[in-house]
Amino acid sequence: MKIYTKTGDQGETGLYGAERVGKDHPRVEVYGTVDEANSAIGLARALLPPAHSDLQADLEYLQNALFDLGADLATREGGPYERNLARIDAKDVQHLEALIDRYQEEAPRFTGFIHPGGHPAAAALHLARTIARRAERCLVALMRQEKVNPEALRYLNRLSDLLFTLARVVNQREGYSEEGWRVKKRR
Q1: Residue 163: inside a domain, yes or no?
Q2: Which of 28, 97, 128, 182 is most buried when burial is the number of CB atoms within 10 A of its CB?
Q3: Which residues of the chain, if any, have pLDDT below 50?
């Protein structure tokens, strides 16, 4: 099987269900941005020291879940292939909340805005967090035009919180101190 199909050469792509839309369609933008966040998580995993097997497992779970989310977003309600996928639901959101709560116990106490960075894996998680926030904004724009699974929005909102928490945990475990935002003094 060839990797190229030439079906997108005219600026269109297929949603799950065979419907063709422009590659700049808001639905394509949101699931493409979810894919970008997934790639940033993959970068974080590649940079994560081997000792963090719990984080590796949870990040692998997230990567699989983001494929599910992408399929959810690529499939319009009532489409012919909707029965072939599992939509993101409240249990998925609750799972993210449980992960946030678990890792929050290990993270330093939150006292305000911090600079994204620290250990390379933490920096990659911060990047994934900002991409997840962009996906969330793209989804809000899509929701103004079309009916979309509302749990997908809740999921993206929790995902960015989880990625923030995981970045802080990586920095804590690896001995990196957080740099807080220093407000510019008035002259």
Answers
A1: yes
A2: 128
A3: none
b/e map 136-172, b = 16+ CB within 10 Å: bebbeebbeeeebbebbbbbbebbbbbbbbbbbbbbb
Find the domain containing 162 and state its range: 21-108+115-173
pLDDT one-digit tens code per residue, 68-89: 999 999 888 877 777 888 899 9
Q: What's phi and psi for 18, nearest 5 deg?
A: 80, -5
Element of type H or E holding 77: none
Residues in the chain: 187
- 173: tokens are 């475990």
- What is the rounded distance in angstroms from the CA atom of residue 176 to the CA atom of residue 130? 20
The pTM assigned to this predicted structure is: 0.89
Report if residue 13 sits inside a domain: no
| Contacts of residue 135, Cβ cutoff 8 Å, sequence gap at least 6 | 30, 33, 34, 36, 37, 156
The answer to whether residues 120 and 46 touch, using CB atoms and an 8 Å cutoff, is no
Among left, alpha and beta (phi > 0; psi -120 to 50; other), residue 92 is alpha
